[in-house]
Amino acid sequence: MPRGRTAKVEQRELAVYELLKMHGCMTTSQIIDELGLSHTQVFYVLKVLARRGDVAEYVVGRRIALWCVRHVDPLRKYVIAFKSIGYDVRHILARLMHLLQSVKSKHWCVKTTHAGIPPLEPVSKSVFLDMLLDLLDGSAELVLRRAERRARTNRAYVCIDDVDAAKAKIRGALERLGVIKWIYA
Fold first, then answer.
1. Could you tell me the pTM of the whole model?
2. CA separation for the pair 100, 108 (Å, rounded)
3. What is the pLDDT of residues 80-132, one digit of tens each?
4. What angle do CA 129, 131, 135 make, to 5 degrees?
5. Helix 122-136 vs helix 89-101: angle between axes, to the nearest 10 degrees?
6. Under a CB-based contact definition with an 8 Å cutoff, are residues 9 and 45 in contact?
7. How far, in Å, CA of 156 to CA of 82, rounded?
8. Strand, helix or coil at 27?
């Protein structure tokens, strides 16, 4: 076992960093597939790069680990995360924008199982909630309410303090993704 970093490890670091610079963000499995390295090799290199401050790790939802070069658009990590589980962020955000158009009050809470929130699998539902809370940046929160006596689980709600500000932020995200304005107007 070598005691210090070898030339091979330094070559892998360079290869992984160049790949991330080219793509912006990638999941661990995408890096493994692209470079043909083992999970242990890639994970070690990514941790070294993260310790140095060259890349940042984002855990999206419960299972998706994204590695991004510093100063990347936060929306990009969700585009990649949803693409890796088979969804398109544009459709999800457009559906949410359509739901928010019908809200008349300033403050709004909705159950995470509401029909207007995209019907996603449990893993991608948590990715969606992470994205929503990150995009709305402080104007939304996830609230757990105590269940009634008959129900055994607590209910989760997304509560938005300023609906107009939330609409503007989601509209801005949709425009960055290239969605035409008239789709959600």
1. 0.61
2. 9
3. 777 777 777 777 777 777 777 777 777 777 776 665 565 556 556 666 777 77
4. 120
5. 70
6. yes
7. 21
8. strand
Q: Which two tokens stand for residue 178?
A: 């290239």
CA dihedral 53, 55, 60, 65 (to 10 degrees): -110
Residue 174 to residue 114: CA distance in whole angstroms? 22
Regarding the domain delimited by 7-72, which CATH topology (the fold level of the hierarchy) does it fall under? Arc Repressor Mutant, subunit A (1.10.10)
Residues in CB range of 129: below 8 A, 6 or more apart? 112, 142, 156, 158
**Range(s) for CATH 1.10.10.10 in the chain?**
7-72
Report the amino acid identity of residue 7: A
The verdict on domain 87-183 having CATH code 3.30.70 is: no
Q: State whether residue 48 is helix, strand or coil.
A: helix
Of 91, 121, 95, 124, the C-alpha closest to 110 is 95
HSE toward the beta carbon, residue 161, CA cutoff 13 A = 8
- Please count the residues of the chain: 185
